[in-house]
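Trying the structure run again after the queue cleared.
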Amino acid sequence: MLRQTKLAVILAVLLIPVTVHAAFEHERILNADIGAPILDVTANPAGDLVFVLTPGEVLIYSTDDQTVLDRIPVAGPFDRIAYQDEDRLVLTAAKPSRINVIRFSRIFDIDLSGRAVKGPPDARVTLVVFDDYQ
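Done. Tokens:
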């Protein structure tokens, strides 16, 4: 009898649903007024770039700087966007049935003020060498 009571208590404890309360912390990473209808949104895996598809263009937002880095003009009525690989965006449209793959490259500005330079400051190409003579 005692054994059956122990078994009944163990089964009761195992079968009684346990209420678990979950909580989430949240942080607003990007808050922007787009100024145009948003058709779709995607982000790169690192989460530092957000691509917003609007009619006629893709806006590239930096979550670090909270600014628009660039705008890519888009010809056609696309309504979906997806991030692919490291340098591609895939745009699709349901009607008419279309797909457009855009390759992009990020260009970084390098501040050369106070550095030794050779040639005109408005040259189309600038080569920068970082050396450590220690």
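The first helix runs from residue 2 to 15. Worth checking whether this holds up in the mutant runs.
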